Structure formats: structure tokens, C-alpha cells
Amino acid sequence: MNTYRITVAYDGTAYRGWQRQENTELTVQGILERRISEIAGKKMVVSGSGRTDSGVHALGQECSLYLEQEIDMDSFKKQLNALLPEDIRVLDISREKRDFHARKSAVGKCYEYQIDLRDKMEVFHRKYRFHFPHPVDIAAMKKAAEYLMGTHDFSAFTDLKEDKDTVRTIYAVGIVYEKDTLTLSWIGDGFLYHMVRILTGTLLDVGIGKIKAEEIPEILKAKDRKKSGFPAPAKGLFLGRVFYTEAELKKAVQKISEK
């Protein structure tokens, strides 16, 4: 058996998220599997590093694919991209060790959230940024982010009540303001359903004074979704990168921490 890692970028606007679903063909995983199956001549399955919600984008979603035969990776990539719609693109295909799994082998992920703070939103940003036309206190947001870093029970920051394991570790939070655009970067060992969007909304609520930075520890302790902030819209969220070595993860955390 040959194991391959496929790196995919996609615009999630038209899709019901990453994961295949029985009631729709509009999922990224479903389309990718159908096109790979056409090339292979039989039904194929790819495993993603994790789900992205409806409308969420990816700069670097990772997938694992298992094939009996070896493939010419460059040729396979060209064939696949020729069959895929223009809003899904294979960036890279690489050979991995047999036991590689896109989700199980990951040691961390980085998500990015883009926010447009202008009074009137830039026309070319409307599909990929959240319009939040309010002055925000960046210092207060950074203070709140410090409370969120580390290992915590993030029950207050997920919309899926069925999650039994709600403990996650956030390694770094980047907050960069430049030219009326606010970029939030989140690096962690994993994220719960809607977690990044709720964390982002909570920091924005801190930025406008609706929530105080000092309240974050109590919100974490309460484990009550009603106490955290609003979920920022899906369109501003990007799965940026998935990490498979501690060295890669450490380097990314250091880079964000220096900003």
C-alpha cells in the first residue's frame, strides 16, 4: 500500500463544508473523492485533517490517500486539477510513510480570521472577510488572548453540546492590525465545532468593551456558551496550515508570538 499526502486549497463559499454528506454533493471531500475515483477507475476515499464548516475556506487542508499502485505525483496532480472546479485546487502531492494519517498524525493547526474594520467594506473583501465597522481596543484583545492560551476546557466556546472531550490547548494567538484589516491567527492542538469563530467573536466583543478581558478566566470556568461571544461568520475563516512535526509547530508559534 502506498500512502500519499495531498495539500488542497479551496474557496468554501459554494460548499456545505469539507466533510462528505449523503444529502448533498456540494462538499469539498465529496468532490475530491469523485474526481480521484475517476482517475483511479474505482471508488476512492480521502481522509482530511479535520472538518471545516459550511462557507469556511482553506489555504492548506491536508488529506491522506492510500493507493495499491505507485503514481507519478506530478502527472496525478495535473490530472486531478484538470477535473476539479476552479474553487478547489491541489497544491501538492507527496509520498508519506505507510502509517501517515492526515488527522491522526497532525500535532497542531493554524486558523486565520480576516476582519474588515472600515466604515464601508472594501468591495473585493466581501466574500472573504467579516465586516465589523467599529473601533476596537487592540490592547484589550491581546490581554484577553493571553487568558485563552494554554490548556483549558473550552466548553463555553463550542456550539456542539455532544462533544465529550472539550479540553484543548491553544499555543499562540496572533492579533495584527494593518490598513483597516484585523487578522487573528490561532494555533492549537485542535479546535471544537465553531470554536475559532466563537473565540474570534469573543475577542471582538472585548475589543468594543462588551466583555472585559479580565472576564475570560470566569467564562472558561463557567463552561457556559451563553457567557462567551458571538460566532463570527464563516466567510472570514481560513484553515491556514496543518503541522505534522513539533519543529514546524514550534517555528510557527514563535513567528506569531513575535508579532
UniProtKB/TrEMBL annotation:
Record-linked Pfam families: PseudoU_synth_1
Active site per UniProt: D53 (nucleophile)
InterPro entries recorded: PsdUridine_synth_cat_dom_sf, PsdUridine_synth_TruA, PsdUridine_synth_TruA_a/b_dom, PsdUridine_synth_TruA_C, TruA/RsuA/RluB/E/F_N
Gene behind the chain: truA
Protein EC: 5.4.99.12
Keywords assigned by UniProt, alphabetized: Isomerase, tRNA processing
Domain of life the protein comes from: Bacteria
NCBIfam families listed in its UniProt record: hisT_truA (TIGR00071)
Name by which UniProt lists this protein: tRNA pseudouridine synthase A
Record function comment: Formation of pseudouridine at positions 38, 39 and 40 in the anticodon stem and loop of transfer RNAs.
Ranges of residues in domain Pseudouridine synthase I TruA alpha/beta: 8-103, 144-244
Organism: Coprococcus comes
SUPFAM superfamilies tied to this protein: Pseudouridine synthase (SSF55120)
